[in-house]
């Protein structure tokens, strides 16, 4: 299990690999990864944190790529729909998917102090959720877990 967001890494490689995975996914599924959609994904990958739609729009506006909210919302909706990004409900914000193509529900680790969001996959949690709802006859389409706590950096710097 690899946590993205709380560890040191080559940021440029991370962005390049994220975009490459998205391009491959788009080609495989016959999707159009337009320049705006791609740029929004790059913005999310570059930040490694959950961003509100208006924050994304501000970057697009600054770069001359759009100034109306629907520009950002359409791109974000596309990325979420095709599992290239996720909406973190607790923060009403979006984050690039760190595990494109894994097919597992994300688990978000949200630092209550600095706001950093890490993403992990937890297959055992999915199995447990499926087992828990099975007796009710309910079937899970999508599951996402958001856990609030303290990231390693804030924990290490706590008084």
Give a structural overview.
This protein is an alpha+beta fold and about 160 residues long. It has one domain (about 10-155): Arc Repressor Mutant, subunit A. It is about 45% helix and about 15% strand. The chain is built from 6 helices and 5 strands. The chain has helices at about 10-30, 35-45, 55-60, 70-80, 125-135, 150-155; strands at about 85-90, 95, 105-110, 115-120, 145-150. The strands form 2 sheets. Strands 4-3-5 form a 3-stranded mixed sheet, with no helix packed on it. A hairpin with a 4-residue loop joins strand 1 and strand 2 (about 95). The longest helix has 19 residues, at about 10-30. The radius of gyration is 16 Å and the shape is globular.
Number of helices: 6
Q: What is the CATH C level class, in words?
A: Mainly Alpha
- Oligomerization status of the protein chains: single chain
Flag low-confidence runs. none
Structural class: alpha+beta
What characterizes the major β-sheet? 3 strands, mixed
* Overall mean confidence score, pLDDT: 86
The beta-strand count equals 5
Identify the overall geometry. globular
């Amino acid at each position: 299990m690899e946590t993205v967001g709380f560890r040191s890494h080559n940021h440029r490689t991370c962005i390049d690999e994220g975009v490459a995975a998205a391009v491959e996914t788009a080609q495989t599924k016959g999707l159009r990864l337009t320049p705006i959609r791609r740029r929004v994904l790059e913005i999310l990958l570059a930040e490694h944190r959950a961003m509100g739609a208006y924050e994304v729009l501000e970057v697009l506006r600054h770069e001359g790529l759009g100034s109306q909210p629907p520009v950002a919302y359409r791109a974000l909706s596309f990325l979420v729909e095709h599992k290239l990004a996720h909406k973190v409900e607790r923060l009403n914000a979006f984050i690039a998917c760190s595990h494109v193509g894994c097919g597992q529900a994300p688990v978000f680790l949200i630092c209550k102090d600095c706001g950093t969001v890490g993403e992990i996959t937890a297959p055992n949690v999915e199995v447990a959720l499926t087992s828990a709802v099975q007796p009710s006859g309910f079937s899970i389409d999508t599951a996402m877990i958001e856990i609030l706590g303290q990231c390693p950096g804030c924990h290490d710097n706590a008084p």
